[in-house]
Amino acid sequence: VYPAQTDPLSHATMLTNVGLNQYKRGNFRDAIGKYLDANKLIEGLTDSTSQVIRNKILLNTGNCYSKMGVADSAFLYLIQSRKLAEERMDKDGEANALINIGNTYQRFDDTKNAILYTQQALSAYKESGNAVRILASYSKLAALYDKAGMTDEAMRAFNEAEKWAAKLKLKKELGVIYHNKGIMMTTQERYQE
Question: CA 107 to CA 156: how far, in whole Å?
């Protein structure tokens, strides 16, 4: 049990971090409990810091439900996270919600919607200028396009991811991109490219 904090925001932040640790350990129900307890502590608070914490709570709760295979609850929280980020004009927060909505669709084998939301996330990351997330979104799109049999789109996305990884001098990510691109090309018997 955690000591009661006099400051609800500090206590909510601590509970959110404990929830994140539970999530990383795969204890999704425990994580959700911590997130919901944290959310109760900051109900009614409208300051910017409380809104950032609330958005983190919504996003992480949605991700827990997604990992547990509870689609309705996952989408409910992720959509709330997106809405809050949009209200705050937080493009990175909006993009994070969108990419996680896409991940949830992918988890439930809905590649079409996974692509749609990943494309939207990419656009939002471009608006925010988050280069690392732009790279990650292109890599994700490449894999989704490949899964959907959209080889030309996958190749374009791989090429964009490659450009961003080179620009950012991320050698490990560049190696992963080359590896995944090579697997796709081998599977498609495109040996000459």
Answer: 24
Angle subtended at Cα 50 by Cα 120 and Cα 37, rounded to the nearest 5 degrees? 100
Question: Which among 102, 98, 114 is positioned nearest to 148, based on CA atoms?
Answer: 114
Dihedral pair phi/psi, residue 48, rounded to 5°: -60, -45
Radius of gyration of the chain (CA): 19
Q: Report the candidate in 86, 62, 56 with the shortest Cα–Cα distance to residue 74.
A: 62
Eight-state DSSP code of residue 6: S
Rounded alpha-carbon distances, angstroms, from residue 193 to 26, 54, 57, 132, 157: 41, 47, 45, 27, 15
CA-closest candidate to residue 133, choices 169, 175, 102, 165: 165
Task: Provide the 10 A C-beta neighbour count for residue 175.
Answer: 11
User: How many CB atoms within 10 Å of residue 7?
Assistant: 9
Nearest-angstrom CA–CA distance, 78 and 75: 5
Expressed in angstroms, the distance from the first to the final Cα of the chain is 59
Give pLDDT tens digits for 2-56: 555 568 999 999 999 999 999 999 999 999 999 999 999 999 999 999 999 999 9
Burial of 14 (0-12, 13-18, 19+ CB in 10 A): middle
Count of positions (residues) in the chain: 193
Q: Which class for 143: exposed (0-12), middle (13-18), buried (19 or more C-beta within 10 A)? A: buried
pTM over 0.85: yes
